[in-house]
Amino acid sequence: MIDDRKARVLEALVEEYIATGEPVSSRAVLDRSGLSVSSATVRNDLASLESYGFVSQPHTSAGRVPTDTGYRYYVDHCSPARLRAATRSRISGFFSSVHSQLGRLLQETSGLLADLTHYPAVVLGPGLVGESIRGIHLVPLGERVLLVVVVTNTGRVSQELVQLPAVLADSDLEKVEAILDKAYCGHTFSETGEVMDAISADRAAPSIRSAISEIVKNLQRAEQSTREVYLGGTSQATSLWEDLAAVRRMLSLLEHEAVVMELIGAEEEGTTVRIGTELDAAEEGDLAVVASSYDAGEHGSGRVGVLGPMRMDYRRTIKVVEEIGESLGDRLGG
Length: 334
Description:
CATH topology of the largest domain: Beta-Lactamase
CATH class of the largest domain: Alpha Beta
Number of helices: 13
Shape: elongated
Largest sheet: 5 strands, antiparallel
Radius of gyration: 26 Å
Strand content: 15-25%
Helix content: 40-55%
CATH superfamily of the largest domain: GAF domain
Structural class: alpha+beta
Oligomer: single chain
Distance between the termini: 40 Å
Number of domains: 3
CATH architecture of the largest domain: 2-Layer Sandwich
C-alpha cells in the first residue's frame, strides 16, 4: 500500500511519538529516519500517509500523530528489539530460582513482567487440562443446588455450582459423591467415557444417575473454565495516561477478570498485538495489549501479557512478553 520510503517515514514518526508523546514535525521525522531527502519530500509523504489514514494532524499548525491504522502497520512490519544482557540475565535468574507453588510462581511472574515493561501485566494460569482428579466433594447449598468441589493431583481446587434435575435425599447425595469420587479418582476431567462406563456399571437408581450426568457435564466445562488471573504492576497505570479519566477506566477494566481474559485473548495462541478499536472492551480507544502464550506441559497452556496506551514501546515490549512466556513454559515443563 505504501512504498519503502513512506514506510520509513511512518516508522520514524511512530517511534518519535512513542519517545516524546508530542505531535511529530517533518524535521523530527527526517532526523530520526536518516533519509537523504528534503523536508518538503517528507512533508509530502506525511500528507500522503494522512490521506491513507495512517497519521492525523491534531491541530493545523501542529505535527502529526499515528492513528490506530498507523500503529497497526508499524507493529506488523517492525522487528522485535534485542534485549539487553541485564534484562535477559534477570529473566533467566528469576526462572532458575525455586518456586514451590504454581500460584506463587505465576503471581511473581506478573510482577516481573510489569517491572521489565513498566506496564500493568497479566498472567493467565493454565486450565485444569491434563490434571487428574484426587477427590470430589459435594456441598448442598439448596434443595437442588450443589457446590461441587474437586481437588486435582497438583493440589488445585475447582468449585462448580450445579443445578440438579430433581431434589435428592441426603443419603442419595452421599451415594452420588461416593460413585463420582470412585469413578473419577486418578482420571482427568476429559476422560468422561471411562468414567461414565464405571458409573453405569454401578447400576445406581435413575435419579442418582441423572444427578451424576448433570455433574459430569459441569466438570467437563470446569476443565477449560478454571483459569486464574494474576495481575502485576497495576499502579503503573497512574503514570501511563495523562487523562485521569483514562486511568480510572483502566483500573476499572483490571477489576473484572472476564474482561482481562478477553483483552489478552485467553483462547488465542502465539503472540498477539491488539490496538485501540481492535479491542472490544476498550470503548475509549487509547489502549493496546501485547500477549503471548506459554506451554505448561501437563498443566495445559496459559497467556502472559501487558496492557498500556497505544503509545507503547512495541518492539521491546513484544520481545519481553515473548521471552517471559517462553521462559515460563520451560519452567513448567512445556
